[in-house]
Each structure stands twice: as C-alpha cells, then as structure tokens.
Amino acid sequence: MRKILGTTIASLALAASAIGLSAGSASASTYIPISLTTSHGVGVYSQATGNSAKYDSDLWASHGDSIVAICWVVGQQVGNDGDVWYKTSQVNYGAYGYSDYFNAPYTAWTFAPYVDGAAAFHNGLNRC
Description:
This protein is of the alpha+beta class. The chain has helices spanning 5-23, 112-116, 119-122; strands at 32-35, 66-74, 84-93, 98-101, 108-111.
C-alpha cells in the first residue's frame, strides 16, 4: 500500500481521537504517530518478544521511518534496555514511501527503547 506519510498519520490520529471522544469514556487505546529517533534497527514482531515471528523489514530513523503506536505492554527484557513494547497498528517506510497496517486479529509489536527511547511510554501513551 502506498500512502503519503504525514497526511496518513495525521488522519489516523485525528480519527482515533474523534472516536475516543465520541465514546465518552477513557480508552486503553490511543493512536500515536511516532518517528523513530534512535540508531537501532527496529523489528516488527508478532508478539512482544524478539523471539517471535517478524512481519517486515527493520525500520530505521535514518530512512525517515515511523510507527503508529496504540498502547504499551511489558514484554521481553532486551539486554539492559528495558521491557516496554509498543502495540503497533501501522509502520511507515519513509525511504520507500509505503505503509503496512496491522488490524485485528493481527497485532504487531515494536521495542519501545529502539523506537524512540521509550519517550511515548514516558509521556502518556496508555498501557494496553
């Protein structure tokens, strides 16, 4: 699928916000666009562990890649970097100009410290 990154991410975030507001109650899910900010390659996994199947090629900040995170969980500990994983609904390959979407029943997971140093986790992304 080919999408224009900025417009797609902004549209998804706005749509998700509108849905959450119309529901009238707090939701455990949010849709937060996150640009990669670390030098690590970021795998896209089927579970919150690096031992699970990988869906796509690694993401890289240097390629302008990004994700859309829904929420976070405690998953596999990776070295001394932590154990926070983002439930991921979309990955965007900036250098190649396309996006992949993960909808129920399929879920994708990315390791938060490698995505953005776990900044979204520390700044209010909801727990799943």
